C-alpha cells in the first residue's frame, strides 16, 4: 500500500507541476484531470472512497465546463506543449524547487509508511467518509448553500463574459 500511495503522491506533484508550468489551456486541463485523479486516489488510500468518488465526478464535470470555455477563448492554432523549450524550463525549475523543499523538510517527516484507515476496522464503528459526509450536511449545511450559490453566480458571470456583443435570438439584424 505504501508503494501505491507513493505513486499517487508522486503523480499529484507531477500533475501540479504540469499545470503550473504550461500556459496553454489544453494541456493545463489535462494536467488538472491527472491531479484530480491522483488526489482522489490519495483520498481512497486514506479511507474515503465515497468522498473521493463524489469529488472526482463533480470536479471532472466542472473541469469539462471550464475546459470548453477556455478552449473557446484561446484561439491558438499551435499551443505550446510540455516538450517545448520555455515550458520544459519552467517544469525543471518547479521540480528543483520541490526537491529543495523536500530536502529541507525531510528530517521532520514522522512516518514513512501509510496505513489505510480501513485496516483499523476492528477499532471503529463507522467508516471515516460516512461520518464526514454526515457532518458536511449537518453542521456545514449553510456553507454548502453558500458554495452552491457562488458556483451558480460564477456560471452566470462566465456566460456573460463569453457571450460578447451578440444578444441571442433578439439581436437586431
UniProtKB/TrEMBL annotation:
Q: Which InterPro entries match?
A: ComplexI_Subunit6 (IPR050269), NADH_UbQ/plastoQ_OxRdtase_su6 (IPR001457), Nuo/plastoQ_OxRdtase_6_NuoJ (IPR042106)
Signal peptide range equals 1-15
Pfam family, any one: Oxidored_q3
Matches recorded under Gene3D superfamilies: NADH-ubiquinone/plastoquinone oxidoreductase chain 6, subunit NuoJ (1.20.120.1200)
Keyword DNA-binding among record annotations: no
Which residue spans adopt a coiled-coil conformation according to this UniProt entry?
none
Q: Where are the transmembrane segments?
A: 52-75, 87-106, 141-161
Q: How does it sit in the membrane?
A: Multi-pass membrane protein
Which Gene Ontology cellular-component terms appear in the entry? mitochondrial membrane
Q: Which reaction does it catalyse?
A: a ubiquinone + NADH + 5 H(+)(in) = a ubiquinol + NAD(+) + 4 H(+)(out)
Write down the EC number: 7.1.1.2
User: Which GO molecular function terms does the record list?
Assistant: NADH dehydrogenase (ubiquinone) activity
Top-level taxonomic group: Eukaryota
Is Transmembrane among the key words of this record? yes
| Keyword line | Electron transport, Membrane, Mitochondrion, NAD, Respiratory chain, Signal, Translocase, Transmembrane, Transmembrane helix, Transport, Ubiquinone
What does the function comment of this entry state?
Answer: Core subunit of the mitochondrial membrane respiratory chain NADH dehydrogenase (Complex I) which catalyzes electron transfer from NADH through the respiratory chain, using ubiquinone as an electron acceptor. Essential for the catalytic activity and assembly of complex I.
Family the entry assigns: Belongs to the complex I subunit 6 family.
Report what the protein is called: NADH-ubiquinone oxidoreductase chain 6
Q: Which organism is it from?
A: Pontinus nematophthalmus
Amino acid at each position: 500500500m505504501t508503494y501505491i500511495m507513493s505513486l499517487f503522491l508522486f503523480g499529484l506533484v507531477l500533475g501540479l507541476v504540469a499545470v503550473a508550468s504550461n500556459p496553454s489551456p489544453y494541456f493545463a486541463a489535462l494536467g488538472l484531470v491527472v491531479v484530480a485523479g491522483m488526489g482522489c486516489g490519495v483520498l481512497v488510500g486514506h479511507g474515503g472512497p465515497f468522498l473521493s468518488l463524489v469529488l472526482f465526478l463533480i470536479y471532472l464535470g466542472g473541469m469539462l465546463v471550464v475546459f470548453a470555455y477556455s478552449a473557446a477563448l484561446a484561439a491558438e492554432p499551435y499551443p505550446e506543449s510540455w516538450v517545448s523549450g520555455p515550458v520544459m524550463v519552467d517544469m525543471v525549475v518547479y521540480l528543483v524547487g520541490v526537491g529543495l523543499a523536500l530536502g529541507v523538510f525531510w528530517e521532520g517527516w514522522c512516518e514513512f509508511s501509510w496505513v489505510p484507515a480501513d485496516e483499523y476496522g476492528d477499532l471503529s464503528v463507522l467508516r471515516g467518509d460516512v461520518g464526514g459526509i454526515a457532518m458536511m450536511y449537518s453542521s456545514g449545511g449553510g456553507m454548502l448553500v453558500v458554495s452552491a450559490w457562488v458556483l451558480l453566480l460564477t456560471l452566470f458571470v462566465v456566460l456573460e463574459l463569453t457571450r460578447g456583443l451578440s444578444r441571442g435570438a433578439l439581436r437586431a439584424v
